[in-house]
Design goal:
- By secondary structure, this protein is α+β, with helices and mostly antiparallel strands.
- Helices cover about 25% and strands about 25% of the residues.
- It contains 19 helices and 26 strands.
- Helix 8 crosses helix 9.
- The protein starts with 6 loop residues before the first helix and ends in a 6-residue tail after the last strand.
- About 5% of the residues have low confidence.
Length: about 700
């Protein structure tokens, strides 16, 4: 039996929680203090009648002293503990880690779900992640505020909202809406088949990394996606009130318990309340009586009724954690004033989960998915939008086909049909760690290539992955041959290949070190320069060049195709087969783009095109998105398109007459389609062939 599981540790915990000394317990049991000390130090064990007396003294259920459980007959006292301000006068006006992310549900879904994947417990089963939007109002809201101890929090909210820094302004707006609408949005994230927040209250462990610390990832496996400990900050940055409540079922017992470990954390800027200054964070929990931590709020082992009252009751005893974001908001889905647009938020969460985790949700014949994800919406406890399971094939059919073929071992060396998937191995040379004298290790990444689906709006890019099939970046390759059929390409590197071994682990660690905190590219980083031997800084760029060269070797071949298939492939065959047909000399491209943001928050742009000369008209579709937010959900619609020179506008398409060498048009973006405010991102515009005009 471990020390934490011993009777002495259990008894000491009861003394501390009840604020009773050994001498007081000895007097109550009519025995000496030395006898109680012998129990606490595991030098002796009480008789059965003494065990019953101890249970009665502490108000515990019968058998608690034998099972070493803390199931009290009494309710656990809960307090909000606010950290006092620094004695040297230092002040923080917000959590710096939270400023790395915007309050965006797409970002939240990516970061929180990746953290759940990193904590997968049973590798033979998927992690189940469920997002639930829940709008509270009226009596339901008032009851929740009582359980949240709102009266204790409100003075701190009001004081912090008076600051004019960013966090104070957001908090003030959240309080204003709450006052005016009597409505509050909760967003709950549950995961199952995950490790849970294990570990001690204050020392190293999963619990303290999430609840007590900043920039501590505490990743216990080299397969983890993150490494900076920033992702958890999205939970608090998505709350206008800075409040997140937690309920965790542990995979490893702590203090004799493994179920309903609960705590709340509040992140506010420095503030002064009733003449006393407070540093920022606060915790909701049971007052700790441990020397050195007196009256600090620690986690408590809650009963089912308490979990339900805080909207944190879990559906089963399977390990994992539930996070409740109080006052959740998404900058791109605000809806009508005073009323959250649950449908828009639901759609955005589903799309974000599909965009970022379609690969983790893809299964092979004998390979289960790594992840299952779903989204639901409630209003005052009643279902508004039923739980929707995210189906990756609905959003990325060609990508799923490619990955499934790889998992099932049915790839080919060269594409001869539209439903095939080509596999090319691309080497990655991993340099040794600095000062070790080891040799360079070669890892064989897997490049998958397949024809794009007819419905693919975003195609002919390479998706780069590592770890638990985490999408790191999407890039359009360079120097693709003219007339190339639309395709989808996926690079699996490190553990994403499904392989194992020292070379895989080395590649995974190297690629993680080449990523910035956002984990959105492989490039030169300070960590590469410091940790790896000379030459490391050029390897990420060389890998991308080798991947693009391998891709050109696949898509550049002009193979005979099977009947049917995507219309673009059929068109290409017709062009090749026509005797004497004149090949195009290129494709229209953007020569110059200029624009500005108007008072309504829309981008107004003027775009000049370079047009290759040909005998037929060009039918083109201008596509806009915010740079760095590629994917189906990032597309921006046009509110207006206007022809300027040498072109005509037909709906969302442009017609450029035959023989034209240049053309220009103007456009105004639709503000409601912006995923973030226009001022927060750069606008990018691509010119694509109009689908409905292809023959």
């Amino acid at each position: 039996m471990s020390e934490l599981d011993s009777f002495g540790a259990w008894l000491e915990r009861q003394l501390r929680r009840s604020r009773v000394s050994q001498a007081e317990l000895a007097a109550a049991l009519n025995m000496t203090r030395a006898g109680v000390s012998a129990w606490v130090n595991n030098r002796a064990m009480p008789r059965a009648d003494r065990l019953r007396s101890i249970e009665e003294f502490f108000g515990l259920v019968p058998g608690a002293a034998t099972s070493l459980q803390d199931a009290e007959k009494r309710a656990v006292e809960r307090i909000w503990y606010h950290r006092r301000a620094h004695a040297d006068g230092g002040r923080e006006f917000g959590n710096a880690a939270a400023f790395a992310f915007e309050a965006d549900f797409g970002t939240l879904a990516r970061e929180a779900t990746q953290n759940s994947l990193d904590e997968r417990l049973d590798p033979t089963r998927p992690v189940r992640v469920r997002y639930t939007l829940h709008e509270l109002s009226g009596d339901q809201l008032r009851a929740f505020k009582v359980h949240l101890q709102w009266d204790d929090l409100e003075p701190h909210f009001r004081a912090a909202a008076r600051h004019r820094q960013k966090v104070g302004r957001i908090l003030a707006e959240g309080l204003r809406e709450l006052d005016e609408t009597d409505s509050l949005l909760l967003l709950r994230i549950d995961d199952y088949n995950a490790a849970g927040l294990t570990g001690p209250e204050y020392d190293d462990g999963r619990f303290s990394a999430v609840v007590r610390r900043q920039l501590d990832s505490h990743k216990t496996t080299g397969r983890a996606g993150g490494s900076f400990g920033l992702g958890k900050a999205t939970l608090w940055s998505t709350s206008r009130l800075g409040v997140v409540l937690i309920n965790s079922t542990l995979s490893e017992p702590h203090e004799g318990h493994d179920e309903r470990r609960m705590i709340g954390r509040l992140d506010l800027p420095w503030r002064r309340v009733d003449g006393e200054s407070f540093a920022g964070p606060a915790w909701l929990g049971e007052p700790d009586e441990t020397p050195g931590f007196r009256r600090v709020a620690r986690s408590w082992w809650a009963d089912e009724a308490t979990a339900r009252s805080l909207h944190l009751a879990r559906e089963s005893q399977e390990p994992g954690t539930s996070f409740l974001i109080v006052g959740a908001h998404d900058v791109g889905s605000e809806g009508e004033p005073g009323r959250p647009d649950l449908a828009a938020m639901h759609t955005k969460l589903v799309g974000a989960l599909a965009d970022n985790f379609w690969a983790a949700m893809t299964a092979g014949e004998n390979a289960p998915p790594l992840l299952q994800a779903s989204v639901a919406a409630l209003r005052n406890g009643k279902v508004v939008i039923p739980e929707q399971r995210v189906d990756p094939s609905e959003y990325f059919p060609a990508h799923v086909r490619a990955l499934k073929a790889y998992l099932d071992g049915v790839t080919v060396d060269r594409l001869t049909a539209v439903d095939q998937v080509a596999l090319v191995r691309v080497p990655l040379s991993v340099p040794p760690l600095r000062g070790t004298g080891d040799k360079t290790i070669e890892h064989r990444a897997a490049l998958l290539v397949t024809p794009a689906d007819d419905a693919d709006e975003d195609h002919s890019k390479i998706t780069y992955m590592r770890g638990s099939r985490m999408t790191v970046m999407k890039r359009r390759p360079r120097e693709i041959p003219l007339g190339t059929d639309p395709f989808q390409a996926i690079l699996l590197a490190g553990y994403a290949t499904g392989d194992d071994g020292p070379e895989v682990a080395s590649a995974e660690a190297f690629l993680r070190a080449s990523e910035p905190p956002e984990h959105d590219k492989w490039d030169r980083t300070e960590e590469l320069a410091v940790v790896y031997a000379r030459g490391a800084l050029t390897r990420p760029r060389k890998l991308r060049a080798d991947v693009e060269a391998a891709l050109r070797g696949v898509v550049g071949r002009r193979e005979a195709q099977a009947q049917g298939g995507p219309s673009a492939l059929r068109e290409l065959l017709q062009l090749d087969a026509a005797a004497g047909a004149r090949r195009t000399e290129g494709y229209p491209t953007v020569r110059h783009l200029e624009g500005a943001i108007d008072d309504a928050g829309a981008w107004r742009v003027h775009i000049e095109l370079r047009i290759p000369q040909r005998d037929d008209p060009w039918w083109l579709t201008p596509v806009a998105w915010f740079d760095g937010q590629e994917g189906r959900s990032a597309m921006i619609t046009w509110a207006e398109l206007t022809a300027v020179d040498n072109c005509e506008v037909d709906g969302v398409n442009l017609r450029v007459p035959p023989g034209t060498r240049s053309a220009s048009f103007a456009g105004v973006t639709e503000v409601s389609s912006h995923s973030v405010p226009a001022a927060w991102a750069r606008l990018a515009v691509d010119i694509r062939r109009a689908k409905e005009m292809q023959t």
